[in-house]
Design goal:
Elements (H helix, E strand, L loop, with lengths): L4 H13 L4 H13 L7 E2 L5 E2 H13 L5 H12 L6 H16 L15 H13 L18 H14 L6 H10 L18 H14 L7 H12 L18 H13 L8 H10 L18 H13 L5
Antiparallel strand pairs: 1-2
Helix pairs in contact: 1-13, 3-5, 3-13, 4-5, 5-7, 6-7, 7-9, 8-9, 9-10, 9-11, 11-13
Amino acid sequence: MEQSVLARLDGQIAWTARQWPHQMRQRLAGYILAQQTAGGGFTDKAGSPDLYYTGWALRGLWLIGGIDDHTRGMTGRYLQASPPKDLIELTSWLMAELAIQGSNAVQGTTLPTARLERAQGAEFRALLHASRSDDGGYVRAAGAPAGSTYLTFLALLTSQMLGEPLPHADRLLEFLRSRRREDGGFAEGPYARFGSVNPTAAAVATLLALSPTGGQDPSLEGACRFLQHAQHADGGWRAWPHSAGGDLLSTFTALYMLAAAGRLENVDAAGAVAFAQACLREDGSFAGTPAETQGDVEFTCYGISTLALLKVES
């Protein structure tokens, strides 16, 4: 498969992050590596090894060039002992595995397509296909009544990591457009009246990848305007129109997809940088908001990505 827009953007983000001073990268990597357990997995907020958090930890380490042989070996053993059971776990598993494989690359800032044993690849493809819902979208596990906009994006991302296009793209786009709302945004579920940031960001990525007109899709312009207007006075992006302030997840997803679409104009980049830096903690982690005291590996990856995306030098 041709390298996706997001894969190219990831390479640019990683290149910038790896130019940061060694002390800064060491501080960030030190926090992430401290969350790895003896079994090789990385911990969730409760301190238990978790496949989802392992995926984000390895992605964060890959961005700053922080995966060494010891981490590679421990995490590889954890992944082999932890087969994914649903779509979210499958995406996380592949994200971690690709970070391990990508850390061996000569250039190191382009993630490869997953190299899997034939039987394992077949199992993963079957799990992905079983996550398709009757309405054309994707769900976490088979049997859910309605597709999820966010999980449909994860299915797209997973298919790209597996090197296999999603079938029936026309049905998927029809599903996606059923989630478009009058405000230009996209909703997560079928009954939400208004758009919100994270489903809209997911829709932008899916439209860029699958729409026959690509960046010229008529839904894309409205979605990008929705994301641009969702920036809060605190510099971050709000998950919902009624949210009190920004959060780092929504800030990253909005900026990431606007950058992918080439629509970063009309955003307050300096405000976004200040917001992300306010989420950085003394231990090298990033928290979800400036008010939160505890960070985790997921938000640390968002923080690294946001600052590197905006070309912050350190």
